[in-house]
């Protein structure tokens, strides 16, 4: 993942145009009215998320949960901000904040050089890598075993790069993590590469012998996770970084990570 999930420059441009024309995912929330800017005090922040557990997802009340979700809630609580949520597909999240539909992407987004051309990133929230997921009866034990097979990836992610590097028979694209896992279960694909934390959390919630995570596994994309903000919103960037530093100094930081299956190896200073 993002890895988790990387937006290409082409996709960002095309989807940004689509967002501008269609207001994809909702009305004119967040962006221009929240998240500060021009030295005004920040009172509310609209978070862009693809609504994928365990990173950043909404509960029945519409409130953010998950690793990233609880972290931004913690920061917002300390800052006295109201949190609103803008939900869209992962590949449209950066175009969403650039179009003013939300103030920040908080959704396990890997910090990459390509993305830095589009947005600014906060300091690192935590680190994690991709997982290799195969059918329960698969004999694959390493990434090399995936060469020349049918590989599934999520649209808009850097896992596409990983899949291409394996010279697959075919790459199949899916719009969500759930669709990826279903494809493995139904043997529409031989293997998928996606966020390890997503699969681990999913299998804890819903054990399924039809799929398994290859273990041990060394990630191709060991990645650093950050929140993304529009380049012009330096005030929000500074506020998020100060809140993140306070969170990391608190025991709540590790409590949030471990609640969703992560460990001290995922923590960063």
Automatic annotation (TrEMBL):
Keyword Hydrolase part of the UniProt annotation: no
Domain Solute-binding protein family 3/N-terminal residue range list: 44-264
Coiled-coil annotated spans: none
Matches recorded under Gene3D superfamilies: Periplasmic binding protein-like II
Xref: SUPFAM superfamilies: Periplasmic binding protein-like II
Signal peptide (UniProt feature, chain positions): 1-23
Entry keyword Signal: yes
Annotated protein name in UniProt: Solute-binding protein family 3/N-terminal domain-containing protein
